[in-house]
C-alpha cells in the first residue's frame, strides 16, 4: 500500500502548498485580530503561544478534514467490483484496493472488504 502512495506522492505536493497557505492566512488573520483587540496582555509570549498553537491545531484538523477525501480513496474490496476503479480513477482519485495489501497485512476479510 505504501508503494502505491509513494508513486503518486508528487501529485500531493499541491495539497501540501494549499494546507501551508491555509495555515499562514489563518495565522496572520489570528494575529491581526489580536492586535485589533488592543489588549496588550494577549501579546505576551505566555498568552500568545497557547492562542497560536491551539489555532494551528484547529487549522491542521480543518485542512485535513477538508482535503483528505480529495486525492485518495481507500476501498477495502476489489476495485473492479461495480467498475469502481474506472469511476474513481477517472475522477482523479488514487484508488488503493485490497489487491495493494499483502496477505500478511489483512487480519480479516469478507466479500465486501477487509481489515488491516
Write a structural description:
The protein has 116 residues and is mainly alpha-helical. The protein folds into two domains: 11-67, no CATH class; 72-115, no CATH class. It has four helices and four strands. The strands form two sheets. Strands 1-2 form a two-stranded parallel ribbon. A two-stranded antiparallel sheet has the order 3-4. Strand 3 (108-109) and strand 4 form a beta hairpin. Helix 2 runs antiparallel to helix 3 (45-67). The longest helix has 25 residues, at 13-37. The protein is elongated. The mean pLDDT is 76.
Primary descriptors:
about 120 residues, 2 domains, mainly alpha, two-stranded antiparallel ribbon, two-stranded parallel sheet
Number of domains: 2
One letter per element, helices H and strands E, the order comes to HHHEHEEE
Number of strands: 4
Structural class: mainly alpha
Mean residue pLDDT: 76
Poorly predicted residue ranges: none
Amino acid at each position: 500500500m505504501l508503494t502505491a502512495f509513494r508513486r503518486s506522492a508528487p501529485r500531493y505536493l499541491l495539497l501540501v502548498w494549499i494546507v501551508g497557505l491555509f495555515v499562514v492566512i489563518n495565522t496572520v488573520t489570528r494575529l491581526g485580530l489580536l492586535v485589533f483587540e488592543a489588549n496588550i496582555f494577549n501579546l505576551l509570549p505566555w498568552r500568545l503561544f497557547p492562542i497560536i498553537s491551539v489555532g494551528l491545531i484547529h487549522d491542521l484538523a480543518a485542512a485535513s478534514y477538508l482535503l483528505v477525501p480529495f486525492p485518495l480513496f481507500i476501498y477495502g474490496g476489489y476495485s473492479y467490483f461495480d467498475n469502481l476503479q474506472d469511476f474513481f480513477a477517472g475522477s482523479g482519485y488514487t484508488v488503493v484496493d485490497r489487491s495493494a495489501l499483502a496477505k500478511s497485512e489483512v487480519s480479516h476479510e469478507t466479500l465486501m472488504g477487509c481489515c488491516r
